[in-house]
Amino acid sequence: MPLLRRRRIKIILAAVCIAATFCSCSFGGRGSENAEKADFFAMDTYMSVTAYGESAQKAAELAKDEVQRLDKLWSVTDENSEIFAVNGGGEVSVSGETAQLISFMLEMAKRTGGALEPTLYPVVKAWGFTGGENRVPSGEEIQELLKNVGYEKVTVSGNNVTLPSGVMLDTGAVGKGYASDKAAEILKENGVDSALIDLGGNIVMIGRKPDGKEWKIGVRDPEGNGVVGVISASDCAIVTSGVYERNFTAADGTVYGHIIDPKSGAPVDNDILSVTIIASEGRLCDALSTALFVMGKDGAIEHWRTHKDFEMIMLCKDGQAYVTEGIKDRFEADEKHKGMKINVITG
Fold first, then answer.
1. How many domains does the chain divide into?
2. One domain, residues 198 and 314
3. Structural domain range at position 90
4. Which of 45, 159, 285, 347 is least buried, going by the fewest C-beta atoms within 10 A?
5. CATH number where 17 lies
6. Is-contact 56 34, C-beta < 8 A?
7. What is the pTM of this model?
8. What are the tens digits of pLDDT across the range 126-154?
9. Which is it for the CA torsion 63, 65, 69, 72, positive or negative?
10. What CATH number corresponds to the domain at position 140?
11. 158-197 per-position pLDDT tens digit
12. How far apart, in Å, are the Cα atoms of 59 and each of 52, 340, 343?
């Protein structure tokens, strides 16, 4: 099976130049004096909610509380979580949020032909990517674990979830995106119409910046420092997937990334360095960024042409970028990457 043979630097989304803009802007009484930021740790990563307006402080705290509440429901390692209970097997009654999350994962698994596979947890755990010690499992062990992998094995009926013994769910590919949507709902319900939510690189923008301009979101260089380019956007979500900091180097020098190919049970190694998805919902961005990374360049392009409910930026090992036509005028390469060839994907 193909293996990842060179180290890659964590790929993240960064809001570039936003700090300076925040400090200097003043627009109709909604300048920096009305900015409130809640920083916190949840879902195994650092997060922040920055909101503007008179109700910003209360709204940011409520959004933070909601994300932390969902984290407790969906953790795969917390013995008190609903996902932990579901993974014990049999029929388990869960909250509406958890039932909706699992239903959405199954929907996306079907849509992507299993490229997004919510039952990969036993395989991911065997590689040590869930808080355990990293290791390289044998081919025999992986094949045995793959017998319990398959989203078709999961049943959701109302708020009841049923898993056969040995089948286990992992919400990692969708949880942060789903939580970002819930945080956005709370901010809007509390009168916030300008905010930036960053849940470990899962970005959601509410409206525009306080000065009325679009947000500038940088796409990190997957093989170096800084950013490859900047996306101008507003009132949408942006998520990037790639080989993140969750990787390890084996004794033979091979570096293994945390995104697992559901077919082989091994870390993905294809022609993509990173996939950035832009869409109306964080949950869709989160699911597709993982699934399309697994599919590879050709599969990702075909999926966009079939559905067209998202935009995409792919950075590939051939040194080129592949950008869907709906985002091409909103993506600009930075100075160091002006020579990068940008291929526009059309329908």
1. 2
2. yes
3. 77-163
4. 347
5. 3.10.520.10
6. yes
7. 0.90
8. 999 887 789 999 999 999 999 999 999 99
9. positive
10. 1.10.3980.10
11. 999 999 999 999 999 999 999 999 999 999 999 999 999 9
12. 9, 41, 41
